[in-house]
Each structure stands twice: as C-alpha cells, then as structure tokens.
Amino acid sequence: MGPMNLTPYFFRAKAQFDKEDITMSTLVTRNRFPVLSRLATNHKGPISAAVHINDDEDKDEVIKELRDLYTGNPDMQQFVDLHLIIDTYDRQFNLWRNIAKLFARTDYIMMLDVDFHICTDLRKSIRSNPDIMDRLRDGRTALVVPAFEFEKQADGNDWKTFPTNKKDLVQLVDDGKIGMFHNNWFKGHGSTNYTRWYETDDDIYKVTKYDFSYEPYIIYKKDGSPWCDERFIGYGANKAACLYEIYLSGIEYWVLPNDFLIHQTHRYPEDARRKERQYNRKLYTNYREEVCLRYARKFYMSGEWETTKADNLKHECAKVHGFQRNFMTTTE
Predict the structure, then answer these.
(1) 273-317 residue pLDDT tens
(2) d(Cα 99, Cα 86) in Å, to the nearest integer?
(3) Taking 70 as the threshold, does the pLDDT of residue 89 lie above it?
(4) How far, CA to CA in Å, does 22 sit from each of 51, 85, 95, 139, 274?
C-alpha cells in the first residue's frame, strides 16, 4: 500500500506481565478509543493495541485525544501497550493485527475485536486448568471463545447489563433475547456448534465441522503460529483468511465450555463494507488455493504429510477445486 509511520510502544504499560499470561491483541481507530479504555478497566490484564490514525489535518488533534485517554485512565497506563500507526490507508486490518501480535509481551494472545465485552474471567479459567495450559504450550491448540449478540441492538449498548455467567446467558438465549454473533451469517460462527455449547458442562470440545468463512475469537500461542495475510484490505474475509491459515498450519480449534463474549452495539459503514467484500471475496478464493498448496508442499517436504499435523489441511483443501491435481504436479 505504501509507507507508514509506526511507533511501537507509543505508550508502554507499567505492569510487568507473566510470560504465560494471555494478551488481548486488538486494533483500534479513533471512534473506538472509549471502548479500548473500557476494555482496559474491565479486563485488568495485558493488552497489545495497534492504534491507527489517519495522516491528515486532524492527526494532531486525534493524537491529543489518545494521550488524554491514556493518561486519564490508570488501567490504560497499567495494562495497555499501545502501538501507533500513522498513514493514509484505512482498514488494513490484517496489518494492524500483525503489529498487535508482534509486540505482545506474553506467550499467548487472544485475537479480539475491541467491540466485544469479555463477560467472564477467561484468563483465570484457562490458567488454572493444567490440561488446557499444556495444550497452549504445545502450540497445536487454539481456544475458541463463543461470541454472542443481542437480538435487539439497543440491548447491546450497556455492558453493565450483560450476563457474567453461562447460566444467565443461556436463560437469555432461551428467552430469545440473545444468540450467536451475526446469526444471519451462519458460516461465520456456526462451526463453534452453539447447540453443543449450551449443553456441555466443563469439558472443552473440538471444532469438527470447519467452514472457510469461520471467524471465531481465539486464544493461541504467539510463537510459531502464522501471521495474517496483509493483502486483504478492508472489510470481508480478512479475519477468515487469517484463521484459515492458522487452521491449515495444523492448529486445532477447541471451544471453551463456560467463557463467552458479547458484542457491544455500534453502527457499520455498510457502503464501504459492500464494495470491499466484493474485492476480498475474489481474493479469498485464490488465496485458499495458494495457502493449501503452500502448506501441503511444506508438510510434504518436511515429512509431516502423513502426520496428524496435516489432517486439517487434507480435509479442508479437498474442497478446493483442482487442489489434488495441482499438489501432485508440484511434488512430482
């Protein structure tokens, strides 16, 4: 796209983080500054935030707003590492995700959209479970945190009214007041299997019916995991492509049984979303074939093709037209 002015740790958190803690890795623009501040206060744990500011006549004013926000909230100062990006290119979401991940100071990160409210103490439930921590250390597991959205947008305005335990959440589901995030686009979160989640007690369970449009919010090991492809600019497929490559790399998705997120209502710029989705849809089709071939060849050359690490790839890439033929051509 062009040059950018990146300042890592424009603000650096005062806290010294445990390496085995979980950093909320997120991206923020001017209209989400208050939401970031709220996340810091509610979460009270490590946050790595990539903050984008447009390089225009309002730049200095926006930087001042950011300074005031940071200095005005002790929780921001204590927990938030803020990495400042200044350029003229909007919505380079995957680039921003990579920056937030790169400068995270813990071994594990959660790829989180800042608009989501963390309703439970997921760091406690994960870090107090030896089996789950062993899975994260191994690097072959990503933990899915189910995401929800109120049926009436007005009900999602005030996080203080959100449920804080699974029992109360399921009651709202039964009452028809809340459900899967973006339930009009089942492919986006359907692979989480919400029906099973409502019925399960305390055991994590594996995502077995993956869809290439799947966009869960995951916790995973920072080192050794793929980066998000930065060719995706704007809305549509950017996060799905990132998660698709993570999955194909051999990382399994397992759903946490009691933790959850709820979306805080905000408006979307629909005109921009519609145009950008059209472009990214075409890009994603080509990208899926490319990443399938890239990882298939990698597994083949490293001797991992016949191991369980290649299982996700074999299952998903069989759905890509011409993959088997092209793969055989590249390995002859």
Answers:
(1) 677 877 888 899 999 999 999 999 999 999 999 999 999 999 999
(2) 13
(3) yes
(4) 19, 23, 21, 14, 34
> What interhelical angle do 93-102 and 238-248 show, nearest 10?
50
Rounded to whole angstroms, how far apart are CA atoms 254 and 192? 9
Query: What is the spatial distance between Cα 202 and Cα 250, in angstroms, rounded to a whole number?
Result: 25
- Reduce the DSSP state of residue 39 to 3 states and report it: helix
Q: In 3D, which of 24, 32, 29, 11 has the Cα closest to residue 78? A: 11
CA distance 44 to 118: 11
Q: What is the pLDDT of residues 95-133, one digit of tens each?
A: 999 999 999 999 999 999 999 999 999 999 999 999 999
State the virtual CA torsion across 314, 320, 325, 326 in degrees, nearest 10: -100
Contact partners, residue 105, CB within 8 Å, separation at least 6: 17, 23, 46, 48, 81
Average pLDDT over residues 226-230: 97
